[in-house]
Design a protein that fits this description.
Largest sheet: 5 strands, mixed, barrel
Number of helices: 0
Number of strands: 8
Distance between the termini: 27 Å
Radius of gyration: 15 Å
Strand content: 35-45%
Shape: globular
Oligomer: single chain
Order of helices and strands: EEEEEEEE
Helix content: under 10%
Length: 120
C-alpha cells in the first residue's frame, strides 16, 4: 500500500499504527511526513504496523499534565521498538518493564483513542 489516503491510522481515528518507508533510500520512520527525513524523497510509502514490539524504556506519570488526564493518573509512558524497525512513544500497562514483549491495543485517553501496549 503506497498512498497515505489508502490507510488510516490512530491519529485519523482508526485502530492502526502507520509507519513510512522511503522507496528511494529505504529509510523507515514513524509519524507521518510528506517527505523522507533522510533523503528528501517526496513519495514515502505508508504501511500498517503489526502492533508488536519490545519495551525500550518506561516511566510512570503520577502528576497529570492536563485536567482531562487527571482521571488516568498514574499511567505509563513507553518507548517501544516495533517489530518493523521503528521506535514509538505510547501508553501502556503500568507494570511493563524494559525488554517486555508487547502488543498494541487501542484505548481511550482524555478525548482520544490511542495506542496502548500490553504484555504479549
Amino acid at each position: 500500500m503506497s498512498e497515505a489516503t489508502e490507510l488510516r491510522g490512530w491519529t485519523d481515528g482508526a485502530d492502526a499504527i502507520l509507519y513510512q518507508l522511503c522507496g528511494a533510500c529505504r529509510h523507515l520512520w514513524y509519524f507521518r511526513r510528506a517527505f523522507c527525513p533522510s533523503c528528501g524523497n517526496a513519495s514515502p510509502h505508508v504501511h500498517k504496523a503489526s502492533g508488536n514490539g519490545v519495551v525500550y524504556a518506561a516511566t510512570v506519570v503520577r502528576r497529570a499534565a492536563t485536567p482531562d488526564a487527571k482521571a488516568h493518573v498514574p499511567y505509563a509512558i513507553l518507548l517501544v521498538d516495533m517489530a518493523e524497525g521503528f521506535r514509538m512513544m505510547a501508553h501502556g500497562d503500568i507494570d511493563l518493564s524494559i525488554g517486555d514483549n508487547v502488543t498494541a491495543e487501542f484505548r481511550p485517553f482524555t478525548n482520544l483513542r490511542i495506542p496502548y501496549f500490553v504484555k504479549a
